[in-house]
Every structure is written in structure tokens, then in C-alpha cells.
């Protein structure tokens, strides 16, 4: 606190007096050890070389019936204090939160120091707000996010109308809304959830950030948005301001919902379903694949599909990699030795995957256990060999007759013909 007073005392004060007959203010400023300079008109003030020196302006308006609106131009550029009489009509300038007013009956060294310090702090807050507004405007020109600032004391949310139109597709000329006005754009089913979320996060004194998703109205219907940002708290840990960003995540949410639906289906199917990244590592697998291979979830995510299907066949693994690199659909039949040491015949079908920008993001694999089919095929081949051996060595003829008593096959023994 002492540092702040010292820095303010070193600021130059430009005192605007109605005439040289006014003596009390210069005496007070001198008694306060302020560095000051006297000017006697607005024009003289504006042409003063010290006006550029980050000074504080003290304006004596005690001879005025009202505070002149001409000083309005100074408010956005300098900390300013108006000295006036209580009976003076207070203009809209006085009620501006960025200026300070000192009444004639309060003129004493302690009060003038306090008033100038308060004006300086108010101006510093104004500059911060002005910088934020400029940043919001500039970001709004190039960003598809809404950058906003919510003052909890005034319940005013300031944002860029340009960004609002880019995100939601319609104009909202209001540059500021209170919280409930903002909520009016939220989907009716999400309003209570949103109110509760912000109530909880603001009353949690340990929370310094927030992240929430809900639906807001757009020109084409309700869309999903994500909000995140920082919570600014005072020394008592009470929230005083939120600074955040609102982003359209409707496309992402749609993809997530579709993925969740597909994952729910994939979890229930008998066949194994696997998502593989471009390098061949497992990203996701359904329960059927985990049960069949005997690998845990943690083990799977450290293995490539080549290591799982061709654990004992380096040449086969290399051929699989070459087929994956082609990014063309293909199927392989392979006898694989899985984690528990058992061998299974599987048929694995692969399909390359791409995102909405046509970027390759991995592969989709469906794997079926074909061990029973392979066993049946092997038995069939074995029976066919035995049958042929029997036919080739028999001396009598053999005839195969259908249920309709039609001759289907005729095999001749060695002594026939």
C-alpha cells in the first residue's frame, strides 16, 4: 500500500483553475508535496507539454452550475478529479465510475490525497478494461471463439458482437448481457445445469478455472458449445470476475456421439473390433478382442497389430505392414498364437480411416475366429484323401445314387472296363 501512495505522489498534477484568483487548491497541493502545474482553461490544458507525462488532472468547477461536458474527452485518457460544490448539478460525468469528485467542504490535505489516489486507481481499472475490449475486438475479427469478460459486481458480460455472429450465425448488437440474458440463449434443458455449474464453481474458493459444455441457440438450431477460462478472486477468495472463451464444438460433439454409438455396438458384437493408429498400435478394442487374445487393456495399448497377429512370423508381419501402408481394404487369414499360448485361426479385415479433412488417422479392423471352419475344412480334406485312396484301390465299381434314385457318380474298379 505504501508503494502505491509513493508512486501516486510522484505523479504530476495538472490543476485546471477558473482564474488566478483561486489560491486554496495550489496551497493544498503544495502542502501535500505534489508536483503540480496550474492551467486556466481547457485549451491551455490540452496544449500543456506535461499532459503526455501520465499526469493526474484536478479540475476546479466550483464556479460552474454544472460540470462541463467538454471534460468528457479527458476521462478515457487521464485519471481525473472534479472539485465542486454540493449544490452543483451533478452531470452524467460524475456518475462515471472512472472519475472522482471532491466537494468544497472536504478540501483538506488528507482528503485530497485520498481523492487523487482513488482517481488514479479508477483510471488504472479503466485502462485494463479498455485493453480487454480492444483485445476482444481484435480477436473477434479473426477468431471463431467468443472472448468474454464477466464482472460479477455489475453482473455484466462483455463480448465481441462480431465473434457472436461468427459462432452463432446471427447478429446480437448488444455488446454486453447480464447472466440471465445470456442464459436465455441456452437450451431450456441445459439452463438449470448451467446455473448450478457456475454457482458451484464460483462458491468454491479453491476453484481458479472453469470448463463446461452445454447447448446454445444458433441460426440453424441449438449447437453444443464449450466454455473455459479463469476465475479472478479478491483477497477474501470471493470471485469478482470471470474471463473466458465460448467455442462452437457441435461438429466435435456429433462425431463423439456417433463414435459412442458405434462403440456401444462394437462392444456387444461377437466379432473382435479394433481401432489402430497409423503406426499400427492399438487405440481401442472391444471386449471380444480382449477375451479372444487374452491381453489386458494396458498390454494392448503397447502392442502393434503385427505383433499380435504375427507374433512368431516376421515375414507375415512385414507383409501385413506393406498392406497397411497401401491404405487399401484387404483381409488376411492367419493362425495366431495369442497371450495364453493358444493358437487360433482368424480372419482379419482392414479398412483405412480418414478424418473430415481427408487426413489418414488409422485403421479399422474386424476379426472373426475361423478356427472351427478351418478344422472342418481340414477334416473334409482328410476325408477326401481317404475316399480317393479307397476308390483308387478298390476292384469293384462304386455308384453314388441320389435320393431320387438318379446316378450322380460312377467310379470304376480296376477290373472293370
Summarize this structure as a short list of keywords or feature phrases.
alpha+beta, 14 helices, 417 residues, 6-stranded antiparallel sheet
Task: Give structural notes.
The longest helix is centred in the first third of the chain and has 34 residues. The protein starts with a helix and ends in a 6-residue tail after the last strand. The protein is α+β, with helices and mostly antiparallel strands. The strands form four sheets. The protein has a six-stranded antiparallel β-sheet, with helices on both faces. The protein has a five-stranded parallel β-sheet with strand order 2-1-3-4-5. It is 37% helix and 28% strand. The chain has 14 helices and 18 strands. The relative contact order is 0.05. Strand 10 and strand 11 form a beta hairpin. It is rod-shaped and about 145 Å long.
- Percent helix range: 25-40%
Distance between the termini: 123 Å
What's the rounded overall pLDDT mean? 79
Characterize the overall form.
Answer: rod-shaped
Radius of gyration over C-alpha positions, nearest whole angstrom? 41 Å
Tell me the strand order in the biggest sheet.
8-7-6-11-10-9
The structural class is alpha+beta
- The number of strands is 18
Q: Low-confidence segments, ≥5 residues, pLDDT <50?
A: 1-10, 91-95, 138-142
Compute the number of helices.
14
Strand content: 25-35%
Largest sheet: 6 strands, antiparallel
